[in-house]
Design brief:
alpha+beta, five-stranded antiparallel β-sheet
Length: about 525
Amino acid sequence: MKTDSAGKPMPDADPNGCLADLAALRHDLHLRTDAMETSLTGMSILKPDGTHVYVNPALVEMSGAGSRETLLGTNAAAFHEDPVELEEIVQQLQVHGSYSGEFVAKRLDGTTVPVLFGASVLRAPGGDVEYIMATFVDVTRWKLAESRAREQADRFNHLLTVTPQGYWLVGRDRELIDVNRSACEMLGYTREEMLALRVNDIEVLETPEETQQRIERLTHHGYDRFETRHRKRDGSVIDVIVSVTLLTAEDGPRLLAFIEDISEQKRIESLEREREIAVRASHAKSAFLQNITHELRTPLNSIMGFAQLLQNDSVLSEGHAGFVQEILRAGEQLSSLVDTILDFTRIESGAMELALVPVDCGELVSEAVQSVEAKASEHGIRIRYALPAAGEAPADEESTFEVRADPSRLRQVLLNLLSNSIVYNKPEGEVEVSVQAADDTVRITVSDTGVGIPVDRQGEIFLSFNRLGREALNISGTGLGLVYGKRLVELMGGTIAFESTEGVGSSFWIELPRASTGDE
């Protein structure tokens, strides 16, 4: 106990500690006041009728008041544009003593700001509302971020909808959580049907265990891209390339997969490989034919040479002379065949050279018809040919039927058409040859009354070594004449075509560009 200067006891200044408690309360109040003053959240203390009796700096700035004095004494109802919304807040406070929610607050300058609003009532000992504590949080940035996130999500969803690639979202158990329209169309399912499937209901090459292993690898690497095959709803299979990205979610990993149908690309690649194989085979065939014909030339020359010596031998009997004549004729046919094969291989390899000059089709056709008249007589075939009457072609040109062509090659093609029209004709049949001139072209047509070509075989007429079953007619040939002729005519800038009726006959025509005045 304290004593005075005389030694008498002095009473304690604060025997119950009230002054200490008061100091602690003041300190606590100071801290709370500082917290409210420095808070970034707008704070207000309101009377029961909504009048502001305290506002912190954050609320002053948020409201656009400019100063605390401007805002004090105003009613919080001024922040609300919607009376219905304000009435709901008042009722919540009366019934529950608190309220939280969002609304768009009206600032003093007339602009608005979205806020997250919270309020609670402070009651007097008797239970009456004494004050209302309110907080205002400006959520403009949150709303902007939310809007941007929503826009990005909308754009992403739109891209998923319109992208030609299939899109899957796959769960931890390989179930399909989401798919886009392209994925459904690619596999022939409805969206509802696909969402009832798992990956391995569609996957062809991987087993469920292999797919699970791939997913586990994805959890370490985060991305994968691979080719596989998927089964469509109708059972058919397509080639696809899959790009997968790992996504993390609260309930486990997700796989975001984009699927592209590459079946057409695979088909084109396969066709390209087949084309390359065919080209190599064609080159090999051409090289073989060229080599074999050169090898045939040496013994053929010997046969022809010795046959010609025998032909000039005066001691041969008439019968033996006939045999020699047959050897020579067969040799000439074989020599012509060798020449044709050699020319064909030159065309195939692109080594054929033509000498294009003005050629009078009238004279060329007349010479060709004369060359085959003897053969036609042997087969009992009559050839009808006459040049067009005057006036059927432009009269101001020196020659009305001149074309730009290689004369020997054009004659070769024409002789082949005439020979075919004779040997494939009917007994006592006819062959008609005509020449017609148009503005830019001249057409030579050879028509016969022969066996014709079946409709189902007409697409094969210009294929190499294809005789359309005519081998049974005991008529010699290689099946190269027409395809060889077609290539020659095309090299001369023309076309060759036909029309045929089985049992009635066929017409083949060559159409070549007319020779211009400057051609030499």
